[in-house]
């Protein structure tokens, strides 16, 4: 449904929503206070705090176009800082909390941030360590405890609000018109790409980029005033920022902030959200947990589980075609009652649908959740496109695709070799029967970024002479649905000259109980191999079933056992039977420690940093090939 108010800028959105809900004491944000449970923040309270912080920033010299950095986890103060910055025409520069001090310093220097707002002591200490390296930085606001002897330019959050509230009241006649003076083409945010190699690039996104994208998304994703979203993906990322923050707020819905990633499972059952916005990795983990529980019991329990999945799929397919009869409905009800009810409970028991983005959702995972009565609508986009370009329709999702192009956005498939347009779609005039061959995905629209910050050469390289932004993704249209193959830069060129996209091959293994993470290797090699992080909980359960006291063994010792290697050997042999010759995986290496954001192997949305991982395991990779080259 459309947004609750008309808007063309973020300040307009905020002030008009505040006016709409003024006096209703309607909750917009929620957070959990240790020992006190969940605490509600109304629109009236949000407005007061946002104006107070805006007053403080303006008092300290922040003016239109100035950058205000934000180093914080998801919490109400993140939204307050963003909105306060926008209200006086400033530019939000969000920084991932997982970044080390050197990367934080780079972004602060590169953006020329005048102020930085930080959350907990570990983030504050990063800024303290690098303040002298950031000449443009004039002040720091700290949400938690100050150090014993704080610098003169460091202010506690509560003090900033107290001073700013007085300043805003005394200068309201000057400050209030600033919000309306902000124009659609004014910069709203610099979002720094996570950067798998080299330094991150600042993507310049305007008010028009965000607002056009939100309004288009709300035409096809049915958020409304009664919805409730649990926010846990990083707000620094464009996906959560647009879908889980601005779009949800535009619909007049409520946002609750998860205590942490580790607490999401518990918070889901406390909050009972109606919508869930997540990345594929979370859905994969849920699938593996449910299937693991089903297959670790008796043969009858496993048979019932498989029947329920089959019944759910038959019902979903029939419902899509409008002919789900009484028998299928009864079978679906039984499947939900005896098998899928526990999954629904884990998701809070109130979910209408889920949205997946940030990476490709494996087709089988999407089909499983649909069978279980949880429709996942997968979307697609990039930071540079603010970010949504396409999303599956809720009433007709096609798993394995990213759906239909958004209204106002144009997407084309371009021949990688000669640059010719193979086919294109405008979201305003949708050709539902368009099918094309594979090529690079290029796009135009009001959601496409203005430029890369202070990088004119990179900006020019991103756009071709016809104005198409090159996504670097390979895909095609299939009956009007956009299908992504992989990233061009992820493409493996084997020594035999074969072009291989690893993403779809890795998806083949993501539903296997023994596999937690996998990365295919093969660039300039004679064949493919794989680095695999096992699911150690499943392995230990299997060991116990075989009479092995697994508690005596570390993960490093477990992966060296013949029985464990045999399990993976069987999995790869089964895959290889049906794989094309150049896509067969001839060897594998098991890794005892998972790839994580903290160790630099994953992006904040849990995508593999392939070059980092290849460099880290170069000896192990060489050994996999040496076995066959002797």
Write a compact overview of the structure shown.
By secondary structure, the chain is an alpha/beta fold.
Strand order of the largest sheet: 7-6-5-3-4-8-9-20
Assembly form of the protein: single chain
Share of β-strand residues:
15-25%
- The residue-averaged pLDDT reads 92
CATH architecture of the largest domain: 3-Layer(aba) Sandwich
Low-confidence stretches: none
User: What separation lies between the terminal Cα atoms?
Assistant: 63 Å
The top level CATH class name of the largest domain: Alpha Beta
What is the CATH topology classification name of the largest domain?
Rossmann fold
Give the proportion of residues in helices. Answer: 25-40%
Major sheet size, sense and barrel closure: 8 strands, mixed
Number of helices: 21
Relevant terms:
alpha/beta, Rossmann fold, 3 domains, 21 helices
Describe the model.
With 630 residues, this protein is an alpha/beta fold. It has 3 domains: 10-182 and 221-274, Rossmann fold (3-Layer(aba) Sandwich); 278-349 and 351-488, Rossmann fold; 491-629, ANL, C-terminal domain (GMP Synthetase, Chain A, domain 3, 2-Layer Sandwich). It is 40% helix and 21% strand. An 8-stranded mixed sheet has the order 7-6-5-3-4-8-9-20, sandwiched between helices. Strands 12-13-14-15-16 form a 5-stranded mixed sheet. It has a 5-stranded antiparallel sheet with strand order 18-17-19-21-22. Helix 14 (363-371) links the parallel strand 13 and strand 14. Helix 12 (299-320) packs across helix 13 (326-346). The longest helix has 22 residues, at 299-320. The mean pLDDT is 92.
